[in-house]
Design a protein that fits this description.
Strand content of chain A: over 45%
Oligomer: heterodimer
Radius of gyration of chain B: 13 Å
Shape of chain B: globular
Number of strands of chain B: 11
Largest sheet of chain B: 7 strands, mixed
Number of strands of chain A: 11
Low-confidence stretches of chain A: none
Strand content of chain B: over 45%
Number of helices of chain A: 0
Order of helices and strands of chain B: EEEEEEEEEEE
Low-confidence stretches of chain B: none
Helix content of chain A: under 10%
Shape of chain A: globular
Structural class of chain A: mainly beta
């Protein structure tokens, strides 16, 4: 059974600060996705990373895939209150129609 | 932007009854998935479906569960005899079948409450 650990589980910071959340596994991912989930809604895809060492940017969000494809990080620069939410990473260990393995998520609160 | 739609948004059912959850995947997608999320827990994979057959299923997806693509647009999850522990959010997802990685896009879920 592959496990995917996210840290921290909860994070509360002031608006304008920077933060990083982490996603780690003992197994190699074929690809990894970051999602954001609002209460009562489904996960919304933010980014997919596939290549070891890959870095993708989405406005103030920077996603990095580890060289060994076992870990990933999400860095938010100058956090805003609108960034508040649950951030999930989900790994794909195979290809095609494989189910995703999700982490428990990081609950992020940005205080004004 | 195309999206995955799920109905109903909330289903309340007596224990032991059959329930069918419905999903309309994104129109050009060929891979379909069901996941569940018990309150306060992580999202868990149930089953994937391609070319009118199950591709992969988890240990959760036992004989009480079945999936079907009854027509060209709908994808359903049936729970034959519901148990209290089936109470959860059920998410449908779909992905495009192309070479390379195909990200999964999720619907907003059906909240299933078993009484």
């Amino acid at each position: 059974t592959q496990l995917l650990e996210q840290s921290p589980q909860f994070l509360s910071i002031q608006e304008g600060e920077n933060l990083t959340v982490y996603c780690n596994s003992s197994s190699v991912f074929s690809s990894l996705q970051w999602y954001r989930q609002e209460p009562g809604e489904g996960p919304v895809l933010l980014v997919t990373v596939v290549t070891g060492g890959e870095v993708k940017k989405l406005k103030r969000l920077t996603f990095q895939f580890g060289d060994a494809r076992k870990d990933s990080s999400l860095h938010i620069t100058a956090a805003q209150t609108g960034d508040t939410g649950l951030y999930l990473c989900a790994g794909d260990y195979g290809g095609g129609a494989d189910g995703l393995t999700f982490g428990k998520g990081t609950h992020l609160i940005i205080q004004p | 932007e195309p999206e995955v739609t799920q109905t109903p948004s909330h289903q309340v059912t007596q224990m032991g009854q059959e329930v069918i959850l419905r999903c309309v995947p994104i129109s050009n997608h060929l891979y379909f998935y069901w996941y569940r999320q018990i309150l306060g827990q992580k999202v868990e994979f149930l089953v994937s479906f391609y070319n009118n057959e199950i591709s992969e299923k988890s240990e959760i997806f036992d004989d009480q569960f079945s999936v079907e693509r009854p027509d060209g647009s709908n994808f359903t999850l049936k729970i034959r005899s519901t148990k209290l522990e089936d109470s959860a959010m059920y998410f449908c997802a779909s992905s495009e079948a192309t070479w390379g990685y195909q990200p999964q896009h999720f619907g907003d879920g059906t909240r299933l409450s078993i009484l």
